[in-house]
User: What shape does this take?
Amino acid sequence: MQLDDAYANAAYIEGSDAFPARWSADAQAYRAAPVAHAEIDVKYGAGDRQVYDLFHPDGPSCGLLLFVHGGYWRAFDKSSWSHLAEGMRARGWTVAMPSYDLCPAVGIPDITRQIAEATTHAAQRIAGPICLAGHSAGGHLVARMACEGVLPKDIAARLQTVLPISPLSDLRPLMLTSMNADFGLDEETAKAESPIFGKPVSGAKVIVWVGADERPVFIEQAQWLSEAWHTDLHIEKGRHHFDVIDALADRGSEMVGLLSQSA
Assistant: This one.
């Protein structure tokens, strides 16, 4: 298809084949460490994948961070990303990491609804402000959570910071990729699910983040969201699509500082 190469990441990242195994190993080790204070497989819906892991801080919670993983809505689950909770957890935040059903078994609008359900469920358990972060397809999903009318009003009112990392903000180009055989997007659905056409909720600070070494379309997608929402855009030097999220594991990173609003 016309845009398959433009949206291909692994082929342009040296050593890309090693990343999934590394993510999985780091996440498994983190869950096994006593510091994690984890609740595993908290149900937020009826399906087997409608669960999240909850990582508690050592002391009282400052609030909730919900991190949504990527994989083009077709791959991965929460179990590969647990270690990324540590940056915010170490700063006193409770971190929720949901899985969700994948395309083509469900459509992208279904996944959006599931993440809204996961966010609502976790927010009903954890008091205080809510931060959202997501990567790639997960960046799309947290941006959708920041659109008016997606989350319940009382939950949306608690949003403090939203960090779409390498987000897909306009889904219409994906109709020109072979992946659309799984997505099933048409013009109407693609536009409805594109955050650039949504109105962001008031009161939440949105920071769009992308690596400078990413594929040009991902930088463009980040720019489109920043421009549409008149919000901050951070292009991080020396980072590509697979390592741009590493900073979430580091409590001292600029990314975590901005996300927690304590930098």
Notes: The chain has a mean pLDDT of 96. DSSP finds nine helices and eight strands in the chain.
